[in-house]
Fold this sequence. Notes:
alpha/beta; 6 helices; globular
Amino acid sequence: MAPTAIVSYDDTLNDLDALALARVLATAGTTLTLAYVRHTTQTQRDREMLEENDAETLLARGARWLGDLDVARRVVVSASTGAGLGWLAEQEDADIVVFGSDYRTAPGHVSPQQSAVTLLEGGPVAVAIAPANYRLNGGPQFGRVGLLADPADEAAAQTAGELADQLDADVTRELRNIDLLVVGSRSEARPGYVTISARAQNAIEASTAPVLIVARAVPVRFAVQVPA
């Protein structure tokens, strides 16, 4: 079964970067869902309907930019964007949540926004983060997928290998001159949850390529599964 990804989208430039990374994941067979998190609801029905319509219109703009008007769209109400997306990922059994970098990030670099940080501190799903201005790359080419992971946990290595196969790339333990970086969770993380080490955090923030952080012991399966 193909992996599924929820793409955090709120119509900002950084979330256009998330859409650009989502396109890459889609070429590797990932099924996408655009998601917008509202933080409040209105007590007056007419105002609530107006906000609901605004949210749907926002997601429609994202679908047009993505070039897929049929892409699934979800609106979630939660006080926390990260928590709301984590909840949606569990409800829909998604494999990845995709973010852009923090709005203050220098072009070409990765810095998790607070919503992503929420899921990097014990979240139940893999997290992908696009570099700032990734939307301007114009169809990036993939030759090397970097891997930073504990050798005792095969989840990240399996994810990197299958993703590289789908992108016609090679896997390397080098962290420079790569086109995407796959990071494993720390050894103390609970199976199925994401927690990163200080080394991983430094590597993420030093990266100039998109980053995919994988939950402990649970690979993201990009290989086509053949029914028995």
